[in-house]
Amino acid sequence: MINFLILPLLIPFLTAILLIFCSKNVVLQRWVAGISAFINVAVAFLLVQKVRNNGIQTLNLSSWEAPFGITLVSDMLSALLVLTTTIIAFACVIYSFKSIGIEREKYFYYPALNFMIVGVIGAFSTGDIFNLFVFFEVLLMSSYVLLVLGGTKIQLRETIKYILVNVISSALFVIAVAYLYSVVGTLNMAHISVRLSELGQSGIITVIAVLFLIIFGLKGGIFPLYFWLPGSYYAPPAPVMALFGALLTKVGVYAIMRTYTLFFIHDTGYTHQLLMILSIITIIVGVVGAIAFSDIKKIIIYNIIVAIGVILFGVSVMTPDSLAGSIFYLIHDMIIKSGLFLLIGIIIAITGTSHLRKFSGLIKRYPGLGWTFFIAALVLAGIPPFSGFVGKVLIVKGGFESEHYWGGAIILGSSLLVLFSVMKIFINGFWGTPQNFAGESKVPVRKLLIAPIILVTISVLYGAGSEFIFPYILQAAETLANPSIYIDAVLKEW
Amino acid sequence: MKTNDLILQTTTKVVLFIIILFSVYIFFAGHYTPGGGFVGGLLTSGAIILLTLAFDMKTVKQILPFNYIYMAATGLLFAGGTAAGSLLFNVPFLTHAFGDVNIPILGETALHTATLFDLGVFLVVVGVTMTIIQTIGVDE
């Protein structure tokens, strides 16, 4: 079936429409959302297998031939990210059943969530730079809804900031695309790459490269453009926070990965050097934040920023090893961050506070929660044999091989501090004297734990089975390292 | 205070139908010439807003008892459904089909699935515009 790669996009789209019609019946909504999310995981899995067996999949929408119409492209990187997205979406949907509250569910929570998944998957699978902008808008529009839904004071305040930042960055995005179009005269990403290699890297193209870095950096939260992130991600309830932290920033990272390996590869001395410096500062700032705060939400949010720095450092080094490491770490980080956000959602539901000093001794009464959190913390910090380790080893190896010793050393140091920052939560919150909390008996901890346990298990398996997964990652990295594979797949007869 | 809006109300009763007819014309014109579902939808919602201005929200709700959110969703269903129809024929997504069909009375007519897609756009635009107007237009 030639349309196969649109299915992971189409299923949430049609689900969202269906969910609008049954917005009054919350139970029906849950069933529809849950089943469709599960089907989508299966479909995305088949897509990964298909890309593995048959190479890059392309689809020329409306039957317009490649450089003229909009093309969807699923290479291994995009297929793997689509699979990860569907898994996280499924976990967040089933977590929402017991936690998000019936009021939000009635006011189009599930449709908005599904539309956001459409945007995220679309951004991962499009092969057209303007279409990428469109899918960014789709996911942003729905993220505004998810962020403000519930209408508490902090949500309203942060939503205004979030909308302002994103409206500005969207405007910049259109401007940058227009610049690029005026230089190369095409919007198809493969075709842009061909034209750019014919033109060579002139000054204007470096300007465009930096513009793109600013735009995607704003979405992804690299230094110094991460300023809005800790505030905005702090506001919404746990499942929304998990979706935002795991998916939205990573769309920005993916876009940087794509443009910096496909378009702007002719003056790496400038553009990639800039990316490297920024990514290292991002790591440092993130680590400082993660250690300094004693609010558990803030700690995890700053850990997002650390991870973004680590991934982008791998991209900026641009060796096959470091690219493979970046991809491996990207997927690892998406899964484990969403798991951690869901776990601290449970902690906050039990204790009613996110401040570390105000609760202790949780492990006595909730051993399942405690041990899941402990494993998640080890996975996040990258203790061998967990998955964070494999990715970081490759990135650091790539860094050392290309003689960026400082960067590699900082990443190694940051892992220790990341471990410290999450162990701080474990030691302060789970050890010590058990306390009683008002309203904790109402929290269905066992049912809530299902989703994070699924995610943490996948994460552990991802690390333990890295031998089995690695060929997939290598295939993805190969496409990034050799743009010609991507170009040949999209522009068949050119 | 009682406002004197006799002129506005009388004019609206006539002008409303002209605008709606024009929007239908624009909608169909969009196939080959400027126009289409988006502009047509905006014109129609313009007409409904004029009606709301001349009378009030309550009256308009009585005349047009639609749930505009469902209308937008129906529109999405039309647009998405037309696009997804290509899956059944195993041609690339969004590929449209057309052909000449002999309809009684009208005779030989060119039919195009893009019209159905456009109808979806029309419904989405009317639905979303009216939802916005109804949400921000009510004074509590």
UniProtKB/TrEMBL annotation, chain A:
**Statement: the UniProt record of this protein carries the keyword Nucleotide-binding:** no
User: Mind telling me which residue stretches traverse the membrane in this protein?
Assistant: 6-23, 30-48, 68-95, 107-124, 130-150, 162-184, 204-228, 240-261, 273-293, 300-318, 338-356, 368-386, 406-427, 448-474
Bilayer disposition of the protein: Multi-pass membrane protein
Per UniProt, the keywords (alphabetical) are: Antiport, Cell membrane, Membrane, Transmembrane, Transmembrane helix, Transport
| Cellular compartment(s) | Cell membrane; Membrane
Q: Which residues form the NADH:quinone oxidoreductase/Mrp antiporter transmembrane domain?
A: 128-416
The family classification in the record reads: Belongs to the CPA3 antiporters (TC 2.A.63) subunit D family.
| Protein name (database record) | Multicomponent Na+:H+ antiporter subunit D
UniProtKB/TrEMBL annotation, chain B:
The entry's family comment says:
Belongs to the CPA3 antiporters (TC 2.A.63) subunit B family.
- Species source reads Cytobacillus eiseniae
Kindly list the residue ranges recorded as spanning the membrane: 12-32, 38-56, 68-89, 109-133
The principal localisation class reads: membrane
Q: Where found?
A: Cell membrane
Supply the alphabetized keyword list.
Cell membrane, Membrane, Transmembrane, Transmembrane helix
Q: Please tell me whether the keyword Manganese is annotated for this protein.
A: no
- Organism's domain of life? Bacteria
Q: Which InterPro entries match?
A: CPA3_antiporter_subunitB, MnhB
- All copies of the Na+/H+ antiporter MnhB subunit-related protein domain together span 7-131
Its membrane topology? Multi-pass membrane protein
Among PANTHER family, the record links this protein to:
NA(+)/H(+) ANTIPORTER SUBUNIT B, NA(+)_H(+) ANTIPORTER SUBUNIT B
> In its UniProt entry, what is this protein called?
Multicomponent Na+:H+ antiporter subunit B
